[in-house]
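Researcher: Let's do a round of design. I'm pasting the structure tokens now; please hold your answer until I've finished.
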């Protein structure tokens, strides 16, 4: 099993009115600068080193949408509504596997 060099932290609300996401939203940062948002143990979105946003999950929930908005706002992007989220194409899981293939 490959080991990966990355940092992981809990997403802390800075723009959302919640005091905490109670450990349900985490961000993983890979050495190439890719940031992956995990909401309720599901990888839902990524921000690439060039600043582009990628949707990784084909679902929608109000709570995860709050996590996504916080993630976007903390990374210099704007918040999005449900319609905008649904219009973003879902990236292949293969893209995520390539991102993670930065072995130690």
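Researcher: That's everything. Go ahead.
Model: Designed sequence:
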């Amino acid at each position: 099993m490959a080991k990966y060099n990355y940092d992981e932290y809990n997403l802390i609300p800075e723009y959302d009115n919640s005091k905490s996401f109670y450990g349900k939203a985490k961000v993983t940062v890979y050495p190439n600068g890719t940031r992956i948002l995990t909401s309720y143990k599901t990888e839902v979105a990524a921000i690439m080193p060039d600043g582009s946003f990628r949707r990784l999950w084909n679902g929608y929930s109000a709570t995860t949408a709050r996590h996504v908005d916080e993630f976007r706002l903390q990374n210099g992007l704007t918040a999005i509504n449900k319609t905008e989220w649904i219009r973003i194409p879902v990236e292949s899981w293969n893209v995520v596997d390539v991102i993670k293939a930065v072995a130690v």
